[in-house]
Amino acid sequence: MKVRRCRGLIPVALIVGFLAVFLLWPLAHVFHRAGVDPQGPTLLYLRALFSHPVQRQAVANSAVLAVLVTLATLLLTLPLAWLFARRSFPGKALWAGLLLLPMILPPFVGAVGMRMVFSRAGALSTLLMRLGLTAAPVDWLGRFPLLGVVLLETLHLFPIMHLNLVAALANIDPSLEEAAANLGARPARVFRRVTLPLAMPGLFAGVTLVFIWSFTELGTPLVFGLRRVLPVLIYDSVSEVGTNPAGYAQVAFVLVVSALTFWITKRLVARQRSLATLGRLSLTRPETPLSRPAAVLTYAGLGLVLGLAVLPHISVLLLAISRRWFLTVLPQGFTLEFFGRALRSELTRTAMLNSLGLAVGATLLDMALGFGIAWLCVRRRVAGADWLDTLAMLPLAVPGLVVAFGYLGCFSAAFPGTLLDPRFNPLLLLAVSYAIRRLPYMVRAAHAGLEQVSRTYEEAAANLGAPPLRVIWRVSLPLIAANLLAGGILCFSFSMLEVSDSLILAQSENFYPITKAIYVLMDSLENGVNVAAALGVWAMAFLAVTILGASLILGKKLGAIFRG
Amino acid sequence: MPERSSAAIELRGVTRRFGNVVALEQVTLAIRPGELFFLLGPSGCGKTTLLRILAGLETPDAGTVLFHGQDTAGLPPHQRGAPMVFQNYALWPHLSVAENVAFGLVERRLSRAEIAHRVAEVLRRVGLADLGRRMPGQLSGGQQQRVVLARALVVNPQIILLDEPLSNLDAKLRVEMRSEIEALHAETDITFVYVTHDQTEALSLADRLAVMAAGRIVAVGTPAELYHRPPNRFCAEFLGEANLVPGRVVNVAANTAVVETQFGPWRALLVDTTPPPETGEPVWCLIRPEALEPVAGPLPGWNNFEAHVRSVRLTGATVSVGLQAAGRELRALRLAQLPFPVRPGARAWWAGPVERTVLIRSDERGNAP
């Protein structure tokens, strides 16, 4: 009995140990370096964030940027989400899929293309001159770098908000709204007084993700030349990671802001949720079909949103196939040469292989970790399951930037010259950081799967003679395979194009993942920017095919699993 | 030779708590080999917890569980060899019918040929010979039920546990499956432990049954014993309709007692005699509705009362008669006939024989009236 209990603790110890080493230690290290110097504890470096003019401006810029992006995504997605949750129109499923398209390209790759649109000699400037609206070329990016970043990040992040809002709206008991209408509230009042308050949990969830993401996004400001934001300052201090505590203070600040955002919204949601579950009566909601004119209007609106959203993708594609794009609206001299170069060059080929291997490794690691944690929390209900769950959710509030910076700080010093030293070989830590970043999604996916699958399936297996590991292998895993696969696809896609960890951790060419290669190529000579764009297109295409293929396989699998 | 337990399953002082709630309290019970044994009780009485303890899916906080004399403490579920028929079937949706049935055999490392042979054999036995390749979702409720039975039978167990196996079936199918389970039990020497809240199911199928209430076993016996001679009020009321007439003991003889009731002195059989009833003790006289007969006037040697007939309802083969006597509601059950001799609104004398009147001394908590 005692032996069995001890053996049961092994997975707990492994998982907690892993998270302690690869998540908690780096964070503790960051706080330690930010707040303690050889003379003892100090607030000097943290105070510099608000007293030093450059840092102060960066803090302000980052805050403004995050608020603007969050507001813009909200304004864009509220009507969209309402439309998708409450109305039916032809082609709705297709549109729903298309709206997720922006997710498959990190905004910073899009920024490489959009630079061509907004720069002094770019498409917009030229177009305005042709139309006679401006006399001389205008450097839109140089003038309004912040707005450029806001635009690009909004177009990239709105699907996240959209998904959260649609889910929240769809989960509202229709009878609650009917009751309001029945008591005399007009549709707009119903929305404001009943629908919106009840949708708050989903809205908060979306706001948290978008706010933290835009507050800590490194790639886009970097490409658009917006140097005075916190993530870029942090990136610039990577080279002095051993000597200058200023970078640690910035990272600590970013972490505190992110964690606070997460915590506050979670508290608000918890309060809301207790209200929302109070009166669940029925869940079938008839979707009202749109009238023909409304459908036409909807198509036009959706077309516009989607057109804007894929503008970065298109600009990247154009850049990849153009010989020259200088002082013209559209590029001139089309060629497929850069696609070939992106495949042949040593740098890009290594980067693709690196990214592929890293993404596969991170996904497998995440599946194992995610399943393990969910299983311990849902099935074994180990003591401290809530803590374990919270720990696994922590990466939602910990930006990639922070994790990467922390790794650089503690592992290089503690394990110099080993596979755990990112300066020596960052591949292991890159894979781990990718996995840690997506762990919350994987845990959620496995969690949901295990909660949907009745425990008696496992009990029946044990009852018929299967020992615990055999039960997991023969029953639990097959039954939640679809959930794990869905989480895995998400993890894989994000890992393929992960930006902050890659830019910070990969320091030498043979370890560059795709994103870092794109970043480096962008500023190199001999059409480097075109090759960078071509590499981006390859990555996009590969991801699109992967996701499509996986959803096809998954579709069938899902059918087979849920037929019972 | 030391005395060995001849029971297939023996429980000694088994207790299980969930937080502050006591699910099972000091349960002691012996189930004989090959018996079709029922655990009967209302929902929440602990019967499913008891079954799950037998399966090893729950661990008792105190007490011992013996299988064929062997202590099962610390024995994990997969080593118990007591397959369970789950209430919601628990047929794995990702495996076909044949794969579901083969599951336990695969765990027992049998050869492919042997597995195929035994799966085909058991599927034939439950009447599903052609459905092995179907997925569980493609079967009707009754067919799923048979697969679950096959899945348990195929491993040749000594014990099978059934948790409300028929509760998800419609009334007609339930009756059909009852006799199939009875037939399956008859052709094997497997011990069946069957949990249900349906007293008809228990009375019609059981070799013996245990009636449970609030985590305790309140009566153990054959269906006929417990129905006709219930040891307490709970058992009397749970196993069927009960007319309970309160009174006080005035005289105790060898196996009957005289009770002063509001209808005059009644005689009742003694079932619960530890300790023997004392003069003046408050008790109930139980008389089942079908034991009451309409009579012209008081019958000497019977227990009589005069009542106002409130209702006469035909339910098919029987007629249920609602009576009111001295402010007390009683019920009589007679075979249907035309014309029925009693009319609503009439006053009539009713009588029940002493050998069908039982002295009830306490409810399930041991409280006297």
What are the key terms here?
heterodimer; A: 564 residues; mainly alpha; two-stranded antiparallel sheet; two-stranded parallel ribbon; 2% strand; globular; disordered C terminus; B: 369 residues; alpha+beta; 6-stranded mixed beta sheet; 5-stranded mixed beta barrel; 8 helices; 20 strands; 36% strand
Plain-language structure description:
The complex is a heterodimer of chains A (564) and B (369). With 564 residues, chain A is an all-alpha fold. Helices cover 76% and strands 2% of the residues of chain A. Chain A is built from 25 helices and 6 strands. In chain A, the strands form 3 sheets. Chain A has a two-stranded antiparallel ribbon. In chain A, strands 3-4 form a two-stranded parallel sheet. In chain A, a hairpin with a 2-residue loop joins strand 1 and strand 2. In chain A, helix 1 packs across helix 18, helix 9 packs across helix 10 and helix 16 runs antiparallel to helix 22. The C terminus of chain A is likely disordered. Helices cover 22% and strands 36% of the residues of chain B. Chain B is globular, with a radius of gyration of 24 Å. Chains A and B meet through helix 20, helix 21 and helix 25 of A and helix 2 of B.
